[in-house]
UniProtKB/TrEMBL annotation:
GO biological process, one term: double-strand break repair via homologous recombination
Reaction equation(s) it catalyzes: Couples ATP hydrolysis with the unwinding of duplex DNA by translocating in the 3'-5' direction
Stated family: Belongs to the helicase family. RecQ subfamily.
Main EC class the enzyme belongs to: isomerase
GO terms for cellular component: chromosome; cytoplasm
Residue ranges annotated for the Helicase ATP-binding domain, each copy included: 249-406
PROSITE patterns linked to this entry: HELICASE_ATP_BIND_1, HELICASE_CTER
SUPFAM superfamilies, A to Z: P-loop containing nucleoside triphosphate hydrolases
Organism: Friedmanniomyces simplex
Keywords linked to the UniProt accession: ATP-binding, Nucleotide-binding
EC number: 5.6.2.4
Name the record gives this protein: DNA 3'-5' helicase
MF-aspect GO terms: 3'-5' DNA helicase activity; ATP binding; four-way junction helicase activity; nucleic acid binding
Residue ranges annotated for the Helicase C-terminal domain, each copy included: 431-597
Length: 597
């Protein structure tokens, strides 16, 4: 089978006298357009599905290469006659079988197509049967070759490998097939069965395969802002930035691949919480790569009465917003679930939160590597993060199998966040003990905190350091091994709700995505491991938009490479001034790295 002249062409060599003569003949058929489309759909969609089912039943098995087969074997003699008889019975027509069908078709050719007989049976010895136009026949003879030789040996379609099939024979069989189809009215009959379907629209199976969904009208920024005001119950609500507005309108214009890099506190959560609440909304799947995020992300839609569910393995229910972990998103069960939503035209988009982890955590978290395989699903993909440096973007695009995504990037600079760098004092207590003293002094004497709501986070490098510092402060520690998801959620909830314990000690396991707005101070004990990680950890502070602080406490033997512009490195430094952070260089260098400008 091949495509020629915009039609499906079937080329076989079998004929009735083959067993007696031992010779093959070129037998060519062209299918009517609707029949050809049906056959292509079968080959493209049904056959691979049959192969999957067959492999599940018998690993290593292969589907039969025959189009008309049963049990892996080509149809036996007499099977086609039985099929014709069954079809005749269903339509109430006289019983047909292969023998009387042949009689009928030969009679039709002789009586209806006599003037076109050469299209059906060109004789090999008939020199003039090759071309019907006298002028072309004369021009061919001028080449000192028989017409038959010229047509079969020269100027045939490049790359066509059909044995003894030449262009003239293909054209004759195309005319013969077209005559049959016109005689039976195949095109007219089958098109009338489409119930006035718009031929310009792909069929459902093709729409699903190509990622084309039910028609959507883009939302205007004004309509989206009005919907957001209703969702938050705030008639004066405005976009937090032009980039947030652009990201929201881009998502709701059904752009296939969207990457939104917005700083912490810039309203990324609106990008996945608003769409499920809009009229005629489909389903939004939110992939949560961090356990620390799950409780917080479940809390927000619950507080705003957004229809949502947390997807467990085996779940078949539906909601406007479905949260799934990175580990679950890469499972066969979830992919099967998502494909069923796509087949029903229900899944609108998949949103990946903290998407930079597909690069930064790829070397130690296999789940975020496996998670990128969901790109095989045909739906809109939205990637959200606060930290995706331009230098990392190419690797990010490659790891997530993207193709020219629409990228929206806002500056990571946060004017309400103030930075400090301080070196531990020589000869006094250990670095952890001095960090505990800094935290206690800030809480009790600085006057920076609203003690009814504000909290403080201390980040350390290792689990052992976290447990030791938590013991000094008498508070909880949050690490990757702090227990089950529920136990980790209890640690965070206890810290937020406690009126007497503002401190939480954590490793980088708590660096990303947590959204408690009233963290007033973040202390990094020792140098942060990277600019990306530092931006995430410091970004936990001041998400309510009020003044907040980041302190990096360096070991006494490690000096900052520079001090504040006014030489007072121990004082709170304005976000507009340049303060170096050891390896992190100065603030301007950090923002140049994160923003590319």
């Amino acid at each position: 089978m091949t495509l020629r002249h915009d039609r499906v062409m079937i080329h076989v060599k079998y004929h009735k006298d083959q067993q007696q003569t031992g010779r093959y003949k070129e037998n060519i058929r062209f299918l009517a357009h609707p029949v050809g489309e049906l056959l292509l759909d079968y080959l493209v969609y049904v056959m691979p599905l049959r192969q999957i089912f067959l492999r599940q039943q018998s690993p290593g098995a292969l589907a039969s290469p025959f189009l008309w087969e049963k049990g892996g074997k080509v149809w036996a003699d007499g099977r086609l006659s039985r099929v014709l008889e069954d079809a005749s019975g269903r339509t109430g027509t006289p019983r047909l079988h292969v023998a009387n069908w042949r009689q009928m078709t030969v009679a039709i050719v002789k009586t209806k197509f006599a003037s076109h007989i050469s299209c059906f049976e060109p004789e090999d010895h008939d020199e003039d049967a090759e071309e019907m136009d006298d002028t072309i026949r004369a021009m061919t003879k001028q080449r000192n070759h028989k017409t038959q030789t010229v047509n079969r040996a020269y100027a045939n379609q490049t790359g066509a490998s059909f044995g003894n099939v030449w262009d003239g024979l293909i054209r004759m069989n195309l005319r013969a097939s077209s005559l049959w189809q016109d005689f039976w009215g195949v095109e007219t009959l089958l098109k009338s069965k489409k119930h006035d379907r718009d031929d310009r629209k792909p069929r459902l199976a093709k729409r699903i395969a190509m990622g084309v969904y039910r028609p959507r009208q883009p939302w205007s920024p004004e309509a989206l802002l009005d919907a957001a005001r209703k969702l938050y119950g705030n008639p004066r609500m405005a976009w937090k930035s032009p980039e947030q507005e652009e990201a929201m309108t881009t998502i709701m214009s059904w752009t296939e691949q969207v990457v939104a890099v917005l700083p912490t506190g810039a309203g990324k959560s609106l990008l996945f919480m608003l769409p499920p609440t809009l009229s005629d909304a489909g389903i939004t799947v939110l992939v949560v790569p961090l356990v620390a995020l799950r409780g917080d992300l479940l809390r927000r839609p619950r507080e705003m009465s957004i229809d949502h569910l947390e997807w467990p393995p085996g779940e078949r229910g539906e909601a406007g917003l479905i949260l799934v972990t990175a580990e679950a998103a890469s499972s066969k069960d979830f992919v099967k679930y998502a494909r069923s939503l796509i087949a029903q035209q229900k899944l609108e988009r998949i949103v990946v939160d903290e998407c930079h982890l597909t690069v930064t955590a790829a070397h130690y978290r296999q789940s975020v590597v496996d998670m990128t395989m969901i790109r095989a699903l045909h739906t809109q993909f939205v990637y959200l993060t606060a930290t995706l440096p331009p230098s990392m973007q190419d690797e990010f695009i490659e790891r997530n199998h993207l193709l020219r995504p629409k990228s929206i990037r806002a500056s990571s600079n946060r004017p309400n966040l103030f930075y400090m760098v301080r070196r531990a004092q020589v000869g006094r207590a250990s670095l952890l003990e001095q960090a505990a003293a800094e935290a206690q002094d800030a809480w009790q004497r600085s006057g920076l905190f609203d003690t009814s709501r504000d909290n403080l986070i201390l980040y350390v490098r290792t689990r052992d350091q976290a447990n030791e510092l938590a013991g000094i402060l008498g508070c909880a520690a949050y690490t990757a091994r702090s227990g089950s998801t529920a136990e980790k959620g209890q640690i965070v909830a206890g810290w937020i709700e406690s009126p007497t314990q503002p401190f939480l000690v954590a490793t980088s396991a708590f660096a990303e995505g947590f959204d408690y707005p009233h963290v007033r101070l973040v202390i990094n004990v020792n140098e942060p491991d990277s600019l990306v990680l530092f931006a995430q950890e410091a970004g936990r502070a001041g998400r309510d938009g009020e003044r907040a602080y980041s302190l990096v406490l360096l070991p006494s033997e490690l000096e900052a490479v520079a001090t504040a512009a006014n030489g007072e490195g121990d004082r709170l430094i304005s976000a507009r001034q340049d303060v170096s952070l050891g390896k992190l260089l100065e603030r301007r260098a950090m923002h140049k790295y994160l923003n590319g400008r």
